[in-house]
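Design request, tokens follow.
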């Protein structure tokens, strides 16, 4: 009897794993394609205007930006939707609505699934210091670089100088961003990770802050017990004019 129960539980677990890691990907891929197409259509319409309009606050569930992580391959790009509810995240990575927008001083924070539902953040654990994250909006290309991971002291300073400006590198090495790691594991309750200045709960956005991007996902796989956090700093913001594309998009 016990053996039959264990066998049934095992089969159900396998079915659930299959559903989460495969079947939900199909539904998410369809929703992501629809969101991406709608985003392209809106941008095309805006490009015909003399002065493209950047929405200050997108509607929940709608795509407003596109994210590229070149180290994951030239085909890695996802439309980012507004909101982090389950219904939002099944369509793609979701922007924490209370955080800043791309390129703004403060923290542009985005959540994404690691298993199933498109699994856009499945490989966050393989990111390295200085890897690029490029965010495209209706009128701007924004390039962020992952902060140093797992190092401190002189090693952290050296890593920061490899891809940040001298001023940014010093803030990261020994200044007010010296405690912000490029990647780490924390608890779901640690909401300070998406604060305007990561690590400080309730910190308000202000012009003196660096423009940051934070990615959050579940850890470990198939579990909500912890959160993996990735922090990156804006190093370039360029208007979308002509055929310009960030050089970072060619990295791999």
């Amino acid at each position: 009897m016990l053996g039959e129960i264990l066998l049934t539980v095992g089969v159900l677990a396998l079915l659930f794993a299959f559903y989460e890691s495969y079947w939900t990907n199909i539904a998410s891929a369809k929703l992501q394609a629809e969101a991406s197409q709608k985003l392209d259509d809106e941008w095309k319409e805006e490009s015909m205007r003399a002065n493209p309009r950047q929405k200050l606050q997108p509607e929940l569930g709608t795509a407003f930006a596109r994210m590229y992580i070149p180290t994951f391959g030239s085909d890695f790009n996802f439309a980012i939707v507004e909101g982090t509810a389950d219904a939002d995240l099944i369509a793609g990575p979701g922007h924490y609505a209370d955080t800043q927008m791309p390129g703004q001083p403060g923290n542009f924070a985005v959540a994404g699934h690691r298993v199933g539902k498109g699994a856009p953040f499945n490989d966050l654990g393989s990111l390295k210091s200085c890897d690029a994250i490029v965010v495209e909006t209706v009128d701007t290309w924004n390039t962020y670089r992952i902060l140093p991971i797992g190092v401190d002291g002189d090693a952290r300073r050296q890593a920061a100088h490899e891809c940040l400006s001298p001023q940014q590198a010093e803030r990261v090495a020994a200044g007010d961003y010296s405690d912000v790691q490029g990647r780490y594991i924390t608890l779901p309750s640690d909401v300070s990770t998406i604060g305007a200045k990561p690590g400080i709960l309730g910190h308000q956005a202000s012009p003196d802050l660096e423009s940051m991007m934070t990615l959050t996902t579940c850890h470990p796989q198939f579990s909500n017990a912890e959160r993996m956090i990735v922090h990156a700093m804006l190093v370039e913001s360029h208007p979308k004019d002509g055929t310009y594309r960030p050089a970072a998009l060619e990295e791999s």
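Comment from the thread starter after seeing the answer: thanks! The chain has one domain: 2-51+59-250.
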